[in-house]
Amino acid sequence: MSVNQTTKARGVDIGVFRCQVCGQLNDQHDEYCVRCSSAISPRNYRSLQNSWALLITAAILLVPANIYPITTLTKSGIVTHETIFSGILRLVHADLVPIAIIVFTASILVPWLKVLGLAFYLSAISFNIPISRQKLMAGFHIIEWIGRWSMLDLFVISLSVALVSMGQLLDAQPAPAATAFALVIFFTQLAAKTLDTRLLWDQLDKNDDTP
Amino acid sequence: MIISSTKPRKHCNLIVCRGCDLVVSKRALPSGVRAVCPQCHTPLYDRPYCAMNGVLALCITSILLYIPSMLFPVLEIHFLGSIRSSTVFQGAMAVWHQGYWVVGLGVLLGAVIAPAVLLGSIMAQMIIIQTGWYRTKFGRDTLNGLLRYHSFINQMSMLEIYVISFLVTSFQLSDFADVYFGLGTLCFTLLFVVTLFLQREYNLEHMWGYVSESDD
């Protein structure tokens, strides 16, 4: 349910600062929140740069995460290296299409969408690109919510590695892409969490959907 | 705090959106409805209270379920007469010992440490509030510290993803071996369900209310 807004005023316009830690409203003269004693700042301008740095790191790590093998499988003495993508293809060939879809969403679709989506979002703030902010924010909420699901692949790897360890007969081991993939998740989550989304809404009202 | 005796009540019918800094006037909501920001659709607030006894009951249940779900194996495979089983912790340690400690740490944090810290934190908050310790300075500072990290820990805890992951693993391994679920699987799934309800029932804004109440 959407609450009717009374004004189009922002907190800074009427001199009320929201504490980003506990949500308490403070007067603009307060330096520290009256409730939780954390420092109050009207906007965190530095967060944009932090977010860009984290995102670029994640984007660079996305390359090794996808081209290097993520697991090494030994089956009857034959060693095969599997990348994220070939693992999904193997699932499709094994007639496990629903599982393949889950893995595809968690380990390819979500990380790529997250990196591209965040890049788009951050450039909209940095370069003042005229795109509907409502749509950007909806995308941001989805990114924030869905981002954790990439951890699925790592959990699966950890369980497989622990269970399948029978030497030359059948053996699963993690491979270099696993670390890169873990770091991609870490940095993209951090990039989304660091960003002060109010910066987007401070831009001129010209990009609005509604007049 | 010297200045705070009158301030918390000053803006009591106003709310400022976390996502876009829009000022919105607060109004009563029907139960089960969440107010979202009219401009950016970030959740603003939901019901103004939470059932403390319900949260306490769910929290104790979760803690009781946490112990067996970590001790018993979550998956077991039978392959050519040999039986292998793994608990959540062993899974994390298996990748750690292969040299992939980043992955191991991620699994450990998401499935073992964060849920434990989350449950411990909610339990401690409940004890502080129910016993009235939040009126003392020490209790208030502890509550403040716990609440500050609550949403971070809540995001780190990934029980639901782990539940899906042992389904995916069991299908993947069923190609070469027979896969069995154990008592740990049942406990872990129940832990996930109870924690889900706990997170629904828990209300962070209500908990912060105790910190400002102790000011007066």
From TrEMBL, chain A:
Question: Membrane spanning segments where?
Answer: 52-71, 112-131, 151-169, 175-192
Q: Could you tell me where this protein is found in the cell?
A: Cell inner membrane
**Broad class of the protein's primary localization:** membrane
Q: Which GO terms describe its cellular component?
A: plasma membrane
Keywords, A to Z, come to: Cell inner membrane, Cell membrane, Membrane, Transmembrane, Transmembrane helix
Keyword Cell inner membrane annotated: yes
UniProt KW Nucleotidyltransferase keyword: no
- InterPro entries documented for this protein: PqiA-like, PqiA-PqiB_transport
List the protein's name.
Paraquat-inducible protein A
